[in-house]
Specification:
elongated, 5% strand, single chain, 2 domains, mainly alpha
């Protein structure tokens, strides 16, 4: 989380806190959720069935279920598919480039090739 930098459209320093974080069930720990809550970042992480069962076993002391926005979570699929398409290019998947700007250029070229093959209207 410390390496996040979101550029602004105009002048000013980049944002270091995203609006929300999408994750799968493996990232549904109490420590991760509390860290995101402290930084005022909305967590869109589904609750695993074992955590749900343990929470319900505790009754009233178990607390409320964590909020979950299924519509936002559905967009996670789009990002995962895009990353998998990029990994279809060998240079992106293995990262032969030593310098970061060369790797970013490789990702740009792979993205352009994907876009030219499969343009989205």
């Amino acid at each position: 989380m410390a390496g996040i930098r979101i550029r602004r459209r105009g002048p000013g320093r980049p944002r270091t806190r995203p609006g929300q974080v999408l994750g799968d069930k493996a990232y549904s720990s109490r420590a991760i959720r509390s860290h995101l809550r402290r930084r005022r970042i909305r967590a869109v992480i589904p609750e695993p069935s074992d955590q749900r069962i343990n929470r319900l076993k505790r009754g009233r002391k178990g607390g409320r279920p964590p909020t979950f926005d299924a519509e936002s979570y559905g967009q996670r699929n789009v990002v995962e598919r895009a990353i998998n398409k990029l990994k279809g290019h060998r240079a992106v998947a293995t990262r032969y480039d030593k310098r970061d700007y060369m790797f970013r250029g490789t990702v740009d070229v792979a993205s352009i090739r994907i876009w030219l093959r499969d343009p989205v209207p």
